[in-house]
Specification:
single chain, three-stranded antiparallel beta sheet, globular, 11 strands
């Protein structure tokens, strides 16, 4: 069953059986929910904090790390890594977000009328990979003579396809078939994963030497996430293999999910000119000169609503999986689940449930995130970064980064398209992607001061 078919099948069953139902993946039984009360149970109960067999392929490709490790081990590991994602550290990344937009804008400046906007996704991925290189590794990947960043960005698509296949195709949930796939149909994807691992391993080796003479690395490498993790390695708080694997998880997530959200936000601007005008007016009113700081990002309330509405309709990770490690576990609605049962949250349909979001749930409306509307909803009705015990470590990193890049992009460009929201068909490709990217027109605004 393909990824497109899986999402549609789950959606159809939800419409037929309600917010909680049983779904079969090959020989495996899975409990699926879009009920916010049960979503809260799954994301907060200790007995449901482990990842199941469906993550075996992810472990095989990236290694055991932050995304996949068991709950108790994860908690200790997460504490060691949290220091690198404290707000003061993220604020230090803002100049990097700004600097790396020069290359992104150079790409967009060449675009005008595009029959297919997939290249914009590639440009978004190049930007987020370049940002991740500096913020995560402390490396300017554009200066790496052995790395073609444009090619690497395209190769990531094949790697994402491999990861997606291992998550949703039961054939790849056994080690035997994974090893065969490594050498055959996903050979290039395996090589891309190995390249990513070598970049991360190289960063750890550089920091462990104490030398600061490589022009590929930042002049102030102490802000990089890898630098902080290397301290944990050297103090014997963290094994190096585990540190590399966890950085693989962080590095891949930081650019893949951010690039997808950036692309979808651009499309929503193009499809909704009335909302695009409101966002643009807010940006111009607040920042006529536009030297953006963290304090500025907090003032962009309408842009924040716009991005959140984009993440509601297009959550980059549309399914979260867990497995029960306790027998006869009773959920808040009275359902009892056995030990070993796979459970999953259908984020895509949770975010489009008419019981939660009203009869216009499939329409784009930033007013869904007005404070009064947010307060009226269940707190687990909107979970683009997951929530609870294993919420995304990089949530603030992503939110601040997206605001900076979108604010400057909207001030520089106007987007339009002939496509309609209802025309878009999605499939899961590690992150959520479109089957047929729509046309897009990009116009550079005049009288720029950014």
């Amino acid at each position: 069953m393909g990824q497109l078919t899986i999402l549609k099948d789950i959606q159809d069953k939800s419409k037929k059986f309600g917010p909680n139902f049983i779904w079969y993946t090959g020989p495996y039984v899975e409990f699926i929910t879009i009920d916010p009360k049960i979503v809260k149970d799954i994301l907060t109960l200790k007995a449901l904090s482990n990842k199941g067999i469906e993550y075996n392929g992810f472990r095989h490709i990236f290694g055991e790390g932050l995304v996949t490790m068991p709950g108790d081990e994860w908690q200790r590991h997460r504490k060691l890594m949290d220091v690198a994602f404290k707000l003061p550290k993220i604020i230090e990344f803002i100049p990097i977000f700004h600097k790396k937009m020069t290359g992104f804008f150079a790409q967009l400046d060449k675009c005008h009328v595009m029959e297919n906007s997939n290249d914009i996704l590639v440009f978004c991925r190049e930007y987020t990979i370049s940002v991740s290189g500096e913020t995560m590794l402390g490396r300017n990947l554009n200066k790496n003579k052995s790395l073609d960043l444009k090619l690497f960005a395209k190769q990531i698509s094949g790697l994402a396809e491999y990861v997606s296949a291992t998550l949703f195709n039961v054939v790849y949930q056994t080690e035997h078939f994974l090893k065969i796939a490594d050498k055959t149909i996903f050979k290039e994807a395996r090589q891309t994963a190995d390249l990513m691992r070598s970049l991360i391993d190289g960063a750890y080796k550089y920091y462990s030497t104490g030398l600061r003479n490589d022009p590929e690395y930042l002049d102030s490498p102490d802000i990089a996430v890898a630098r902080h993790i290397n301290d944990a390695i050297e103090s014997n708080e963290l094994e190096k293999d585990l540190a590399i694997s966890s950085m693989m998880h962080l590095f891949a997530a930081s650019f893949e999910t951010s690039s997808a959200t950036l692309y979808f936000t651009i499309l929503m601007l193009a499809m909704h000119p009335e909302y695009q005008a409101k966002v643009y007016a807010e940006i111009c009113k607040l920042f006529p000169e536009f030297n953006m700081s963290y304090e500025h990002t907090k003032q962009l309330t309408y842009l924040d609503m716009f991005i959140k509405e984009t993440m509601r309709l297009f959550p980059t990770i549309p399914l979260f999986g867990r497995i029960s490690i306790e027998d006869n576990l009773k959920l808040s609605n009275g359902i009892v689940i056995p030990e070993g049962l796979r459970t999953a949250i259908d984020v895509y349909d949770l975010h489009r449930s008419k019981d939660i979001w009203g009869p216009q749930a499939n329409k784009f409306n930033p007013d869904n995130f007005l404070p009064v509307n947010v307060e009226a909803r269940h707190p687990y009705a909107f979970i683009p970064f997951s929530k609870g015990k294993r919420s995304c470590i990089g949530m603030r990193y992503a939110e601040i980064g997206l605001k900076v890049v979108m604010a400057k992009t909207i001030k520089r460009y106007k987007f339009s398209t002939t496509a309609k929201l209802e025309d878009l068909v999605v499939h899961n490709h590690l992150s959520l992607h479109l089957v047929n990217p729509p046309p897009l027109t990009i116009e550079k605004r005049i009288n720029l001061s950014s």
